[in-house]
Each structure stands twice: as C-alpha cells, then as structure tokens.
Amino acid sequence: MKKVAVVVREPGRHYEALRSALGAILEDHQVSYVVLNQEIDPDEAFTDNLGFLEEMEGRHYSNNPANAEKYAFTLLSLPEIGELLREQEIIIPF
C-alpha cells in the first residue's frame, strides 16, 4: 500500500480528481484528496463519490473553510498541506 495524494486546484477538474482518488483507493492505496483554494460545487454524482471515498477510509482536505463547513473536509493551512504532501509517496496533480 502506498500513500497517494490527489491534489486539485482547477475548479473544473474537481470531479475528475475525485474519480482518480477513488481509483487509487480501489487499488488498495492510502488516499488523500486535497482541494486547494476553491470551494467545490458538488452535484449528485460528486456527492455520491465523495461519500464512497469516506466509506473506503479515504481522507479529504482543503484550505478553503467553506469546504470544511459545508462538506466535512478537514481544514488545513497551506503549510499543513505541504507537510501532508511531504509524507506521500505519490502525488497526482490536477
């Protein structure tokens, strides 16, 4: 099992990044889904997949307080996200 971070900062790629995170978790990796700066705008499919990530013990983080308040992301500062990324073996940027 490898530690994998899927990092997304482009608003139009949130769903694509989440799907990649799910693919990694299905391959038995420890996955962190990280949304930088932007508030997500989830539709039903995104919400379902985020729930699946949670069920599969994937973690989701953001430095945007709205994501923490509305969607239960763990709020991290940019330095904390940097530390999280240093702990990863694979980083997939979007």
Annotate the secondary structure layout.
Layout: E1 3-8, H1 14-26, E2 30-35, H2 44-55, E3 59-62, H3 65-71, E4 74-75, H4 78-86, E5 90-93
Parallel strand pairs: 1-2, 1-5, 2-3, 3-4
Helix pairs in contact: 1-2
Radius of gyration: 12 Å
Order of helices and strands: EHEHEHEHE
> Helical stretch count?
4
Mean pLDDT: 97
**Which outline best applies?**
globular
| Distance N to C terminus | 22 Å
Proportion of strand residues: 15-25%
CATH architecture: 3-Layer(aba) Sandwich
Helix and strand composition category: alpha/beta
Domain count: 1
Biggest pleated sheet: 5 strands, parallel
Could you name the ranges where pLDDT drops below 50 across 5 or more consecutive residues? none
Kindly state the number of beta strands. Answer: 5
What's the CATH class label? Alpha Beta
